[in-house]
Amino acid sequence: MPDLDDSMVTTAFELPGYQVTRSLGIVRGITVRSRSVVGNLVGGLQSLFGGNITVYTELCEQARTETYRDMVKHAKQLGANAIIGARYDATELMDGLTEVLCYGTAVIVVPQGT
Description:
The protein has 114 residues and is of the alpha+beta class. It has helices at residues 37-49, 54-77; strands at residues 18-34, 82-94, 97-111. It has a domain at 6-34 and 67-111: Hypothetical protein apc22750. Chain B (Translation Initiation Factor IF3), CATH 3.30.110.70.
């Protein structure tokens, strides 16, 4: 049986080459992030010149990475070896405070034909 690693997580509802034998339910990772005063200052200055606002890009990437890792950890705790239907969602709770959610369905898969 394959181990749960990045190659076993997909946004699709099936994993090519594998058959889902059991669904273990929804798994998720969640984090709430705020922008710092320094981040807002740097972001504001970068926005004056246009283009990619790297301080916010890095903050978003950190939040997504953290929630993804938490989702995978949750799936492993349930005994899953894959996650299908993975998605991200973000909600602004208040000005400067954002919830980031990563979720999917934890499953057990076996190689097709076994």
